[in-house]
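hiii so um. not sure if this is the right channel but i have a protein structure encoded as tokens and i wanna go backwards to a sequence. like what aa goes where. can anyone help
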């Protein structure tokens, strides 16, 4: 088995922590995590693919073991997160790669694609949305905050960062919750409880509207460049619903769509199936 190493990169003074596995020279695969997690969400997937791919899974700025500078010195926006990750790929020599995008990782990875389409060899979108029809009604309180970023509306979103909310994200829509390890969610809760993390996450929830505003640009990229694209979806996701996966085929007729009977964090229950689908897709 190819070992996973745990590394840090100096990205122009910003420390980015990342997991790495596979041999240099193998096809490159960049794994981008979502909220409220970090690169540890790929702990089961990486060993299943490391024999065929050179894999890197960074923690996004403000997440996991990567730097979380004060909000006064770093604006927590998706544009800024994408800039750090884009520069990170340059620092580690990822010049052309496939990318697995999930949740927050999707608008991060899609910004990389807009900036340098020549670097994107393929996209695996696991519950990584780029379409209005992919947003469920559960986005109501968040949309309210976008429209009126008052202290009251911001305060209402703190409930998304409680241990109970994390547990719900991991288990909602999972037919057998006994298959969901507590390890990932407990580590997420540890990171969420760090001083200042709550405000960082509220800033990003507020800035998510910038991703929705970019959906037409992402869709134009899919139409123009038609990257090989696999949309593999936990069909019971309470946030990103199946029409968002099907919509990829509208702009990229060659997109492959596969649904799994699970929820948002599909890797918790279907890592083997997802690995097999990636192998077949990127073969």
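sure thing!! here u go:
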């Amino acid at each position: 088995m190819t070992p996973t190493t745990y590394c840090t990169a100096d990205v122009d003074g910003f420390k980015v922590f990342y997991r790495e596995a596979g041999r240099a020279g193998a096809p490159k695969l960049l794994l981008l995590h979502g909220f409220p997690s970090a690169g540890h969400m790929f702990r089961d997937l990486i060993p299943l693919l490391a024999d065929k791919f050179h894999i890197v899974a960074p923690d996004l700025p403000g997440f996991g073991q990567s730097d979380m500078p004060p909000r006064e010195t770093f604006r927590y926006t998706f544009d800024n997160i994408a800039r750090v990750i884009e520069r990170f790929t340059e620092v580690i020599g990822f010049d052309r790669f496939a990318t697995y995008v999930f949740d927050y990782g999707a608008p991060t990875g899609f910004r990389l694609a807009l900036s340098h389409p020549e670097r994107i060899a393929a996209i695996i979108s696991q519950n990584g949305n780029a379409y209005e029809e992919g947003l469920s009604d559960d986005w109501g309180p968040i949309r309210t905050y976008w429209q009126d970023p008052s202290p009251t509306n911001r305060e209402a979103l703190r409930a998304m960062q409680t241990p109970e909310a994390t547990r719900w994200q991991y288990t909602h829509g999972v037919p057998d919750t006994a298959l969901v390890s507590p390890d990932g969610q407990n580590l997420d809760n540890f990171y969420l409880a760090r001083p200042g993390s709550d405000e960082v996450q509220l800033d990003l929830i507020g800035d998510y509207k910038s991703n929705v505003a970019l959906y037409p640009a992402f869709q134009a990229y899919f139409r123009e460049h038609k990257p090989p694209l696999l949309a593999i979806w936990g069909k019971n996701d309470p946030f990103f619903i199946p029409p968002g996966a099907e919509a990829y085929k509208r702009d990229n007729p060659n997109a492959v769509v596969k649904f799994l009977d699970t929820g948002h964090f599909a890797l918790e229950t279907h890592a083997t199936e997802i690995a097999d689908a990636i192998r077949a897709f990127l073969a």
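oh and The chain has a mean pLDDT of 97.
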